[in-house]
Amino acid sequence: MDIRHMRYFLAVAEAGHMTRAAEHLGIQQPPLSLQIKALEKELGVLLFHRHPKGVTLSDAGRLFEKEARRLVDDLSAMEVRMARVARGELGVLNIGFTSSAAAHVFTPEALRACRRAWPGVALSIREDHAAGITEAVEAGRLHCGLIRVPVSQPAGLTFEVLLREPVLVALPRDHALAMRKNARAVTLAELRDEGFILVRQPGAPGLYANLLALCEAQGFRPRIAAEVERMMTSLNLVAAGAGIAVVPASMQGLHPHAVVYLPLADGTPLDAPLTLVYRAADAVGPAAHFLKIARDTARKTHARNRRGRPA
After folding, report:
1. Can you say whether the dihedral through the CA atoms of 189, 243, 273, 201 is positive or negative?
2. What is the pLDDT of residues 153-191, one digit of tens each?
3. Same fold for the pair 96-162+274-306 and 164-272
4. Is 3-86 in CATH node 1.10.1040.50?
5. pTM, full prediction
6. Architecture of domain 96-162+274-306
7. CA-CA-CA-CA torsion for 264, 268, 274, 280, nearest 10 degrees?
8. Is 187 helix (H, G, I), strand (E, B) or coil?
9. CA torsion angle 253 255 257 262 (round to 10)
10. Under CATH, what is the fold of the domain 164-272?
């Protein structure tokens, strides 16, 4: 027995006539009659009473009609659901992001846009450092991730820079540089004797590797006051007076009563990108929809920034 037999049976039951049912199904009447007889033989029951004006359901046929209708309806509903899955309207989207990427207004805006546009897609969100996210995307545990500077670039992964923003020096509020009248931009040379709080390698070495290279180009190697797993933790330590940190500008709202954020002097070639990492070969369904939303949101964010509104 297959679903085709059940649909033939239901067509005959609804029409009450073999010929009319065959016309509705688009087949000849003799093959339909043979299919119904084969179904009755397989079930071991008589499903229809035949008479000159058509057919009527037997007691067994009425019971079978309920079961067949339920199964056919369930299959039809499943086919509709799977068609929605194929169009990316249903499913699960696994996204990862670093703590600093999450702090950017882009991230919640993109996630809200995804929920509005595709309410049938469940978002599974994970926070990790850049190395962990890259590894999870490569292994297929995540569909995509939002990081800053890539730690590595494995074959098969695409790293797409969506936005760039300046970095700021985060200082304890009572730091001498923060207490200067009309606090101004900071040069790297002024940070020569400071204790830096850096994100531990290899978790997210990209931004800080660039910072270390710039400091060495200025003739000094920064003194490391602490190494932490997350950029958010580095700001917690700055607020506690344990040292200074260099962070993306979008994180400057954290600990406003304990931390002062100052720009680096013009000409310091250091910024913080917001990078989308994904497997190009698997950018289908919900993942493809999110990629489009991410690009659209990035364009809107960039346009706002150009008009002078906050990032």
Report:
1. positive
2. 899 999 999 999 988 999 999 999 988 877 788 888 899
3. yes
4. no
5. 0.71
6. 3-Layer(aba) Sandwich (3.40)
7. -170
8. coil
9. -60
10. D-Maltodextrin-Binding Protein; domain 2 (3.40.190)
